[in-house]
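User: Good morning. I'm curious how zinc ion would be positioned relative to this chain. Could you predict the structure with it bound?
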Amino acid sequence: MVSGEYHDGRSTRIRRVQVMLEGDQLSWRGDDVQGAAQLVQVNVSARMIGVPFTLRLPNGAQLQIAHDDMPGDWLRGRHRIETLVDWLERKRWVALASVLVIGLSLFGWLEYGMPWMADRIAARMPQRMDVAMGQQALTLMRGRMLLPSHLPAERQAHLRELFDRFSRNVTGLPAVHLAIYDSPSIGANAFALPDGTVVFTDTLLKALPDDASFIAVSAHELGHLAYHHQMREVMRNVGLTVMISMAFGDVTSLSGISAAVPTFLLNNHYSRAFEADADDFAFQALARQGIDPIAFADAMHALERAHPGAADGREVRYMSNHPLDAERIAKAEAASRQFRKL
Ligand SMILES: [Zn+2]
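Assistant: Good morning! Here's the predicted structure, ligand included:
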């Protein structure tokens, strides 16, 4: 038997009653009121910590029983989920564990899930999305950051010829072409845009010692293109909604994203893993066409010599995007040894 309050549903009067359950029969008795009902006909509110239970009776009246007074077996078979939640809410360790699980899931999603999904979607992205994104980005940069090249026309024609001949024999590429610009603001740099444009600046071309080193840097950029690095990087940062609309070829979703491409190219850099992949791609592509991969190391050393100390941030973009580290040079040297053995 438990104490409760009886509200008749017509007046505001509250009557104190004693409530009991015998078999399936619920009965109450108190201040000039008494009655009974089958438990199955009584609608019992869900369990919520600190909130009294409301038992709606068939006659339209209600019984209220304090939360902690409610006998558990009166609820048997009802509100299973709420009962479970209530139990969970009472256990502090469950709450802490939940926070931990949610935190770990979030971390896992951001660290692995999202990049995984971004890669899958980038790989299936309609080609016209890459083209549209690359062209929009190029349009934004042209006239501001990218000015007409001052290299002699014959030199440009020669480089273009080298680039075309090399890239034609590299498999797994979209349509690519070389674009040469003068860019006082971005200094010595080379980058690939998702539409297949590989941009070299005059300053970078002047710093490279020979044709082979030019081809080596081109091969590295072609690696970024072959692996869709630009799109994958963009996809990691746009969020799910944009990702999905892009996957369905919605070009309007590109506005805004394309504007971020130049900023990314000039201020950020690919992950080490992406750089290592582009390097490996380059070493293989070079070797396959009879060019010693040491040309890549030569290019890196030449760039470093051209900008000793890497003091002026403007002039050493390629080096800041592509840090010269011993590991990359060692890999180029290893690829070269391998090449010479063949
Ligand atoms: Zn790179």
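The CA atoms of residues 287 and 339 lie 6 Å apart. The two ends are 93 Å apart (CA to CA).
Let me know if you'd like a different ligand tried.
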